[in-house]
Amino acid sequence: MRIILLGAPGAGKGTQAQYLMQEFGIPQISTGDMLRAAIKAGTPLGLEAKKVIDAGQLVSDEIIIGLVKERIAQPDCQNGFLLDGFPRTIPQADAMVESNINIDYVLEFDVPDEVIVERMSGRRVHPASGRVYHIVYNPPKEEGKDDQTGDELIIRADDEPETVKKRLDIYHEQTEPLVAYYQGLAEQGKTQYHKLDGTQAVEKVSAQLKALLA
Ligand code: AP5
Ligand code: ZN
After folding, report:
1. Which of 13, 131, 136, 175 to mutate to test the pocket of ligand 1 (most atoms within 8 A of CB)?
2. Closest atom of ligand 1 to CA, residue 122
3. Which of the chain's termini has less CB crowding within 10 Å, N or C?
4. Residue ranges of region LID (predicted)?
5. 124 an active-site residue?
6. What whole-number distance in Å separates Cα of residue 49 and Cα of residue 29?
7. What is this structure's pTM?
8. Is 71 a catalytic residue?
């Protein structure tokens, strides 16, 4: 099963990816997590990406497409994968079509901008696993600690309110056109497109996904 999770920053893509990975046993490919890992490791890609990400801008299509194609070619992606945060521009989506990488489901999480800003201010993350928490809506069992490892949770550098606003602008400009793009593919029978109300509680969204994909 090949799935794209589409939605604004903070719409819940990473949160539901964790659920879908467990439920369906397919790997999460989060371009954001991959870039943050490169930054932490201090690789040339990381050094280049850091400035762009901290400013809330998008990393170049060329770099991202290369990264994703390489990842999809790994053996653990043979039975499917979950794309989280990719594609984010029309050229990135075109690259998938041109490479004959067909997608079974495109799942859009619909969340208004005001809700996003509130979510980002309370987000805490465990970078090593990609697990995501919220201090109010999805708190860890022990404050500030990852449920499974007990590691300290951190605040993402790009979650400052000014950067979040910038990321939302870029989402509306460059990523939202993908809604029409994939609805068009769905009309041609090339994928299935589903829009979910992403403002519901985490468990409700997960239950809807389960029903949809079962
Ligand atoms: P990326 O890491 O992909 O960030 P994003 O798309 O902006 O999305 P987020 O991770 O912020 O949000 P999410 O939808 O995963 O929400 P989450 O589940 O965490 O990308 C970061 C940067 O990398 C980009 O800005 C760009 O620079 C670069 N980049 C990445 N991919 C790229 C690409 N393809 N091309 C170019 N550049 C790229 O949830 C958010 C919060 O809400 C959490 O606190 C969570 O606990 C809470 N929450 C989740 N669901 C609910 C719910 N139902 N109810 C209440 N709270 C909830
Ligand atoms: Zn995410």
Report:
1. 13
2. 44
3. C
4. 122-159
5. no
6. 17
7. 0.96
8. no
Q: Tell which phi-psi region holds residue 154, choosing left (phi > 0), alpha (psi between -120 and 50) or beta.
A: beta
Give me the residues paired with residue 2 across strands: 81
Q: Is 167 a catalytic residue?
A: yes
Q: Supply the ipTM of this predicted assembly.
A: 0.98
Q: Which residue in the list 13, 71, 119, 124 is annotated as catalytic?
A: 13
Does 31 carry a binding-site annotation?
yes
Distance CA 206, CA 18 (A): 10
Name the catalytic one among 88, 119, 124, 131: 88
The dihedral formed by the CA atoms of 25, 184, 35 and 134, expressed in degrees to the nearest 10: -70
Distance 21 CA to ligand 1 centre (A): 16
Ligand 1 center from residue 8 Cα (angstroms): 7
